[in-house]
Write a structure and sequence with these properties.
- The chain is mostly beta strands.
- The chain has three helices and 29 strands.
- Strands 19, 20, 21, 22, 23, 24, 25, 26, 27, 28 and 29 form an eleven-stranded antiparallel β-sheet that branches.
- The longest helix is centred in the first third of the chain and has 20 residues, at 3-22.
- The protein binds 2-acetamido-2-deoxy-beta-D-glucopyranose (7 copies).
């Protein structure tokens, strides 16, 4: 390239930079995920202390997480009266890039799993998003100094130049009459790799186990799990049962479309989760995810179980093995590489230091879900693949605290799963015409007949593909919902979320260029046990918001 062209080029970029920093038309496109604002938006009385946690631009960052020391702020009341804590994540990106996972690990506990959105490949203006997450249930961690790690493995190479400029702040709400000291566990135990130099998520298969030793006066233990599919299992919902693979093109991914995340205590199933089929902003129909991210992309749903029935086993002062894995309905229960898993235990102790005793009085849990898979002929002599699975677990225990208090614990799970995949014979090999799955069910735990944990959920999920007449583009349509009652879940406000998102867009143009031809429609409603409400209906078409209506007590007031 000649000197003068190079000179002209740098002049031009300087000019653009000047224009972009000074004029509104270079504002980045604001992306977001539909979600309720944390109720602290209503806290006008508390002293609020905002402290910076992380400021870092993630370029090539594989094996190079951001590791910082956290010190609780002084001058914001003492941690034992804090009303809550929120994390504010703001990310800017421009250029071309794929979505990446972001694992937030604090004191070896994964407290938040997010993913990045896709920047605007053609403009210098890029995109920006902010997500404010309620992390009040982790106050026991925020109360003391510790290590905070953000693992965001980004790849910068030819054709992929997008970096992620991350700002993360924590806000502590000092407590007020409206927001009194938050309920909290005595102890949070990580079910992670415990690594100090990277995020602490485990990659399976095969399973992952960690040894934990509980204090002998522990009386309750609630588990929370993170689980997301990656790599060859990323599109697990469209995998084919191995027994039918011979009817599909070579290379078609097997192990079937069902996954369950299991938790085992000393090798015994303690509970399972039928995971929400999360997609990233680069998943099916990428242009449909701008500027409205797939539900869950910025704040992945977690799964709650009550491990209290295992307290009689866990409190003997010895280490016990807790295993996390993901199983399919194949005869050998194998899955493809890989899933990222982690978990934590919120543990409460008795007022007495005497050891807790008790017994598991009833144990009904199969090792794996029961399932049935079948094939039928579909339209145009295509194939339909149908897989159904179900789970029924009941574990009862009697727990006797050192102080003498007796608790009868009954933990049950009744979960259902169904999947129908439709393949047309005249489609490209192994390319589905439609994938539908629905997981639903209820997890319920009672302590002396009072609800300690309830999780009632329905996750319908549909992807359809079509090539409009006279075109050669693949048009993808996704329609999914997240309907969940999570009540009263200790240390977490009881919430009811009814969310529905339909998005469509071209499946892929060339390389990593996704274009702008997409639509999105969202309806969201939130209520909680504190009486807070929030609703939002928002539509977008070709990058532009076409309708936006918010209602309820948690609507942010516009800055004046
Ligand atoms: C979150 O951080 C961004 C960037 O620092 C800021 O603009 C925004 O006001 C913050 N939001 C809240 C709720 O703190
Ligand atoms: C991480 O650090 C803690 C505290 O220093 C230590 O107990 C633990 O063994 C370390 N983890 C690993 C995997 O080295
Ligand atoms: C637990 O069961 C064993 C026998 O299985 C019995 O000896 C013991 O008394 C029981 N403990 C409690 C606290 O019920
Ligand atoms: C299997 O699941 C599909 C999809 O939910 C459903 O239509 C079908 O009725 C189920 N079949 C059985 C036998 O439960
Ligand atoms: C990138 O941003 C420009 C300017 O806002 C817009 O015209 C273009 O459609 C965007 N492209 C993509 C792929 O979002
Ligand atoms: C977007 O896709 C639709 C459906 O294929 C097509 O009718 C429309 O012309 C496309 N618009 C643009 C701007 O490409
Ligand atoms: C949002 O989009 C959906 C799907 O296209 C449509 O049915 C609905 O009427 C739209 N809502 C508004 C308020 O425009």
């Amino acid at each position: 390239m000649s000197q003068s062209i190079l000179f002209l080029q740098s002049l031009l970029s300087l000019l653009l930079l000047l224009l972009c920093t000074n004029y509104a038309f270079c504002e980045p496109l604001v992306n977001f995920q539909v979600a309720q604002p944390p109720p602290f938006i209503l806290d006008t009385e508390s002293l609020q202390c905002t402290i910076p946690i992380i400021q870092r631009t993630f370029g090539s960052s594989i094996g190079d997480p951001e590791i910082v020391r956290y010190i609780p702020p002084t001058g914001c009341s003492t941690p034992n009266v804090w009303g809550g804590v929120t994390l504010n994540l703001t990310v800017k990106s421009s250029g071309t890039q794929l979505p990446r996972f972001a694992f937030f690990t604090f004191q070896n506990v994964e407290i938040w799993r997010s993913s990045t959105l896709i920047p605007n490949e053609s403009g210098d203006d890029g995109i920006v998003w902010t997500y404010v997450k309620d992390v009040t249930r982790f106050i026991p961690l925020f109360s003391k100094p510790g290590t905070f790690i953000l693992q965001l493995d980004n790849v910068v190479e030819t054709g992929l130049d997008g970096e992620f400029a991350v700002t993360l702040e924590a806000t502590i709400f000092s407590g007020s009459s409206r927001f009194p000291p938050a309920q909290r566990a005595d102890l949070i135990i990580p079910l992670t790799t415990l690594a100090n130099n990277t995020g602490d998520e485990a990659s399976v298969p095969s399973g992952f186990s960690v040894e934990v030793t509980l204090p002998q006066n522990a009386v309750t233990a609630f588990a929370e799990l993170q689980a997301s599919a990656n790599s060859r299992d990323m599109f697990w919902y469209s995998d084919i049962p191995n027994q039918f693979l011979s009817h599909f093109a070579p290379g078609t991914v097997g192990e079937g479309p069902f996954r369950e995340v299991r938790v085992l205590v000393d090798g015994q199933v303690a509970g399972v989760a039928f995971p929400y089929p999360f997609v990233t902003a680069g998943g099916t129909a990428p242009p449909g995810w701008r500027p409205i991210a797939p539900y869950g992309a910025l704040d992945m749903p977690t799964y709650h179980l009550d491990l209290t029935p295992f307290i009689p086993i866990l409190v003997n002062g010895q280490p016990h093995s807790i295993t996390l894995d993901v199983a399919s309905t194949e005869p050998d229960h194998q899955i493809n590489q890989n899933w990222f898993l982690s978990g934590l235990l919120q543990v409460n102790l008795d007022s007495s230091t005497l050891p807790t005793t008790g017994n598991i009085t009833l144990y009904q849990a199969d090792d794996y879900a029961t399932s049935i898979a079948s094939e039928s002929s579909g339209d145009n002599s295509g194939i339909n693949v149908i897989v159904n699975a179900s789970r029924s677990i009941r574990i009862e225990a009697e727990i006797i605290a050192g102080s003498g208090e007796k608790t009868k614990v009954v933990f049950t799970q009744n979960l259902e799963y169904g999947s129908v995949q439709k393949y047309l014979q005249n489609e490209p090999p192994a390319f589905p015409q439609q994938v539908f799955q629905i997981a639903s069910g209820e997890t319920l735990s009672t302590h002396n007949d009072e609800t300690a944990l309830q999780d009632t959920f329905t996750y319908p999920f549909l992807i359809g593909y079509a090539t409009p007449e006279g075109t050669d583009v693949i048009w993808a349509q996704m329609d999914h919902a997240y309907d969940r009652v999570l009540l009263p879940a200790p240390f977490i406000m009881g919430t009811t979320i009814i969310e529905h998102q339909a998005a469509s867009g071209t499946e892929a143009s060339t390389g990593y260029t996704f274009g702008t031809n997409g639509t999105s429609s969202n309806t969201f409603s939130y209520t909680d046990t504190e009486g807070n409400t929030y609703t939002r209906k928002v539509n977008a078409s070709n990058n532009v918001i076409t309708f936006d209506n918010q209602g309820g007590t948690l609507v942010p007031t516009a800055p004046t």
